[in-house]
Amino acid sequence: MVAFGKKLRQNQIEEWQRYYINYKLLKKKVNRYSQQIQVGAENQQNVLKDFSIMLDNQIERIVMFMLEQKGLLASRLSILGEQHGALLEQSDESKISELREAYRAVGQDLLRLLFFVEINAMGLRKILKKFDKRFDHRFTDYYVKTRANHPYSQLRQVFKHVGVGAVVGAISRHLADLQDQEGNHISIYDQPALSHPDPVIDSIKAAVNRLSNSTNFLEFLGKHAFTFQDESPTPSEDHLAEQRYHFMSLLLNLVNTFLYMVNTYIIVPTADNYSRHLGAAATVCGVIIGSMAVAQVFSSVYFSAWSNRSYLRPLVFSSVVLLIGNILYALAYDLNSIPVLLIGRLFCGLGSARAVNRRYISDCVPLKLRLKASAGFVSASALGMACGPALACLFQTDFKIHKLTFNQDTLPGWVMALSWLVYLLWLWISFREPPRENNKLVPQESYTGLPVQDAVEIDFTQPLLLNSEAKFQDNNVDQEFDDGEENYDESHKPVTSIVSAYRLLTPSVKVQLFVYFMLKYAMEILVAESSVVTGHYFIWSTTSVAVFLACLGLTVLPVNVIVGNYISNMFEERQVLLASEIMVLIGILLSFQVLIPYTVPQYVSAALVTFVSAEVLEGVNLSLLSRVISSRLSRGTYNGGLLSTEAGTLARVIADGTISLSGYLGESRLLNATLLPSLFICLSSIIATCFTYNSLY
């Protein structure tokens, strides 16, 4: 991976060279300021003022040139529009073809302009990060907030692609008109499907989407999935992902995600009844549910390592192990054996391939589709979480076939075993193992007319406004050459051990992982003990518990729609984070049974507040975590996705253990006994969040 200064020089359009951001000058200024402050020749306030003026001048030059170029494009479109009007009275195919190519040429020039804006936006973001890191100062927050929110903001012109839509609309409309050779003019406004009739329009739309800094539902779900990717993948890396991409293989990964979540939650409504039948206390359901999470702590590591070499083999292994685990879970009923039951659930946990699913999306899905694939991962998980309990309520039957019992306790195991068998056959037939990274790639031409190696492919789903923690994230890994460029080869090298990964975690990252631990703990306590608590206080049937849990699961996507489309655009993510933690705390407090008789409205409302708040918190927390975690944890075995998975899994293990241990106090005391640790952990996370972010501001 080349340093940004070199990338900027390589990708400059020669005739526009003097309008690009002067990254080299700004970098030298940062170094000079640092030396002057160290020797006391300059104070920090003067430095901030001087550097702000320099950036303002750089941005103004970029914006003025951009507006000039947009004006030229508009003039060309106006001339072409006149020619188009005159051509409507004729039927000259050659002139129609020439006019169509002229419109495409305007589109190509607009695309060049968008790449110009992209590389300048990246340079601005890089230099702001360098300044924050060098001076240990939150200059980025000050600069972006004061400039972006001003009514005469020029910074907003860079990132909000003002006027591009009008140019794209004109090109798209005229190309649609020219496609009709019979003279029946079909408006794109009457038929929106014709809005993007040409590849150049799709290319422009993709470039505009990369420049967009607004948070929408799709982006929110993508971050919620926590699939890591490099800050700016090189063209060769993205081309490798294009070669690896196979829709059916991606679909099989998403189905694996869905089935595993169904497998996790399908036993929750009946786990207490199953343990009673086998002669154990109802609270042993915590051990039954949690044994799967215990095994997942270890399976996540070896699946993450295995995905370095293959994707098909770990998925096949996962399916086989889950098939065996579910058969053992079902057979435990007739064998009257708690050990067989627990071994079956342990096998299910050993088959957790979520690390492979995330890794496949990160490595084998092209950048333009990665956000949709990540959103699909989250949606599949949410759907599985809802479908698991919903399926359990359908198994209200009891019959035998050749001494094998089929009832509400065993049918979850048999149904999931059959599902994994069908999936295994589908996987073996349809999955395509992607080529590995050591395969040589042939340079290809990009749609800009430049070689792929020279085209600028930048991911701008990450906002310009960097979190304050970002200035700390690479302190131990960023190295600089003599000319001051970052040594990306070193700073992007994957870590090789869990200890090395832990050392890269800054205090803010540790707090985010602790918040993730807290929310998973609270959710697991709520879900895993629901059948015991509702049976004791309200005498709910298995069907009632299953419907209740399914309704909770169905809230996931609507909540993410609201947060992704509205809340995250109205408030800063840290504000949403803290507010969500407080709401989880309120939900836990409402769940306690104190003095007055416990009622269904109290339990259901408290559960909804806790669960929905935890879902909001999970999305915002992972979104923040994906921005502040070290780039060295974006790939390799010990990546950020593995760390977050381990934190969440460990929380589930401890929560399920808490339920089982609290069972010794009796079912009447189970609720309050399990809520007390949740309350303590939630309060601790709120204090840690406030302390960490207050110290950074």
From TrEMBL:
Its main location: membrane. Residues 2-145 form the SPX domain. PROSITE patterns: SPX. It is a multi-pass membrane protein. It comes from the Eukaryota. The keyword Cell inner membrane does not apply. The chain crosses the membrane at residues 250-268, 280-303, 315-332, 338-356, 377-399, 411-431, 513-539, 545-564, 576-596, 670-694. The keyword Transmembrane applies. SUPFAM superfamilies: MFS general substrate transporter. Keywords: Membrane, Transmembrane, Transmembrane helix. This is INNER MEMBRANE TRANSPORT PROTEIN YAJR. It comes from Salix viminalis (Common osier).
